[in-house]
Design brief:
Butyryl-CoA Dehydrogenase, subunit A, domain 2; three-stranded mixed sheet; globular
């Protein structure tokens, strides 16, 4: 048992001495944990207080879901710091900042959440870790030591080093040109990644992948994704997402014949994939998909439109969610999932006509960032799909929503890993630039405000990496469905802030296209939108789960 030892706030002279000698004050796990438990109770109490109407309670649920994401991130970092001393300074600041952030959300309007001001945590005890002196010291710590490495085993360390080298030597030299000219991922990146087995990270070894047959290995996917995303989000880090989603959907619902046909082709990279789920009028409301699949002799006819189908041109196989029953209630039980084959196209637009008369067209959508694979608006006109391309065949009719969600669960974790890699790139560029750049007679990095920015950037990145690794471990145990949504919420929001500050630390040059941080900033903006928009995740997934858990 760890007793509290009275007032935790240090005397100012002693505190400054500790800073100068590098001995920073530290709260232990058993001192932070009661406050985090108190916040956990407040979130549950708020969920019970709300009406439970996902539409009427949107504002409150959005806030509570992000609070839950911050809370779990804080618990994860705190637990990691007990095993990794390199995280201790970071954990003190990050956990104190999270407690303050959540408390302030409640304090602004406690009655909205059914709370009294007297129930909120006392923030006075945390001020040592949020003082300008402590934050500046943490910023200097990051300047001197860089970001701490995640604690991984030897196998994952080798994977990390291998793909880090590939990102630095192959991806980074090409990334700016791909972004500015809106090019397709070139063979110089694609072909070596195929040989390295990157498309088989989520596919069991018996099908030619890298994942062990007897267990999950989400951490391998996380490590590789992070390193490739550090090189380029659009031209490397996101190449794994579509194979991840399609492979998990096939493993969840595909027949033995379908798995044997498609998984080896995906693992080798011989068949590139795209996911055709989102529609213009439904967005993240997957259950409302309207593209029709009508039964015909020997298969199905697809009719309707899709949008934001990334990599659809180059892909040889599309994972298409379609409505096979328009009358069944609830609506999500009328959806089925198909694998649709097509020729590969390298252009921004394509048109494919079948011998049977069916037609598929695609038009790439110009985007702010996330360039390299192109995102397409799709249209299917009496496009024929054979029966054996319905995942699960006859047994899979009406189960497409569930197969899709299983795939997206991995995609959300992978998106968090992408955010981590992108943030690391922005931090490293900013660290280097601010140390070299001189203003008013001293380096930008030496100013307290710059140190404060670097401190928070480093803390958010470290927390996101630990959180992502934690959720990967849960998923390998068959758990972590809500946590995958939480880590996506947290890490993607963090990436927007980190890349924004990266631009700001570069000053005017940060706004120039020739400087990499401008690309990181543009790319980061998409993270909170795809793989489930943050509003949908916060309200319909996390918010609903929080209410259900609090009331059961």
């Amino acid at each position: 048992m760890c007793p509290h030892k009275g007032e935790l706030k240090a005397k100012a002279p002693l505190f400054l001495t500790r800073l100068k000698t590098g001995i920073l004050p530290r709260m232990t796990t058993c001192q932070f944990t009661p406050v985090l438990d108190q916040i956990d109770t407040l979130i549950k109490k708020s969920c019970i207080f709300l009406k439970g109407d996902l539409d009427e309670d949107q504002i409150e649920l959005y806030s509570l879901s992000f609070s839950q994401a911050e809370l779990l991130a804080a618990r994860t970092v705190l637990a990691s710091s007990e095993k990794n001393s390199n995280l201790s300074k970071i954990a003190n600041y990050f956990v104190a900042d999270v407690i303050t952030s959540i408390t302030q959300k409640f304090a602004v309007r406690p009655k909205t959440f059914g709370l009294q001001a007297s129930e909120l945590p006392d923030l006075e005890r945390l001020q040592d870790f949020l003082s300008p002196a402590y934050i500046s010291a943490l910023g200097q710590h990051f300047l001197d030591n860089g970001l701490p490495e995640s604690d991984v085993d030897e196998e994952k360390r080798i994977m990390r080093d291998t793909f880090r080298t590939f990102a630095e030597e192959v991806v980074m030299p090409l990334a700016e040109d791909i972004h500015r000219k809106d090019l397709l991922v070139p063979d110089e990146i694609l072909e070596p990644l195929k040989r390295m087995g990157v498309f088989g990270l989520s596919i069991p070894e018996r099908f030619g992948g890298l994942k062990p047959d007897t267990q999950e290995d989400s951490m391998g996917m996380v490590v590789v994704t992070e390193e490739l995303s550090r090189g380029s989000l659009g031209a490397a880090g996101s190449l794994i997402t579509r194979p991840e989603i399609m492979a998990r959907a096939l493993m969840e619902g595909g027949t033995e014949e379908q798995q044997a046909k498609w998984l080896p082709a995906i693992a080798s990279g011989d068949t590139l994939c795209a996911v055709s789920v989102t529609e213009p009028n439904t967005g993240s409301d997957v259950a409302s998909v309207a593209l029709r699949a009508t039964k015909t002799e020997g298969g199905w006819l697809l009719n309707g439109g899709k949008t934001w189908c990334t990599y659809a041109g180059a892909a040889g196989a599309l994972l298409v969610l379609a409505r096979t029953d328009k009358d069944i209630k609830p609506a999500h039980k009328g959806l089925s999932l198909f694998i649709v084959e097509k020729p590969a196209y390298k252009g921004h637009d394509f048109e494919y006509e079948q011998e049977q008369g069916g037609r598929m067209t695609g038009r790439s959508i110009p985007t702010l960032g996330y360039r390299g694979m192109h995102s397409y608006e799709m249209f299917y006109d009496n496009f024929f799909v054979p029966d054996d391309c319905l995942i699960g065949c006859e047994a899979g009719i009406g189960k497409g929503f569930y197969f899709t969600m299983r795939g997206f669960m991995g995609g959300r974790l992978q998106t968090a890993a992408r955010a981590c890699g992108l943030m690391r790139a922005a931090f490293e560029e900013s660290k280097s630039y601010t140390q070299d750049r001189k203003v008013f007679g001293r380096s930008v990095a030496s100013y307290p405000l710059s140190l404060a920015k670097l401190a928070r950037m480093g803390a958010l990145i470290s927390a996101s990496r630990e959180f992502t690794a934690h959720v990967a471990g849960l998923m390998d145990q068959g758990l972590g469905q809500m946590e995958a949504s939480l880590v996506k919420l947290f890490s993607c929001r963090a990436a927007e802030w980190v890349t924004r500050e990266g631009v700001q630390l570069h000053g005017g040059m940060g706004y120039a296209e020739e400087v990499a941080v401008s690309r990181y900033f543009a790319d980061a903006r998409v993270l909170s939108i795809f793989e489930g928009a943050e509003e949908t995740l916060a309200i319909r997934v996390v918010g609903k789960s929080l209410i259900d858990q609090a009331r059961n």
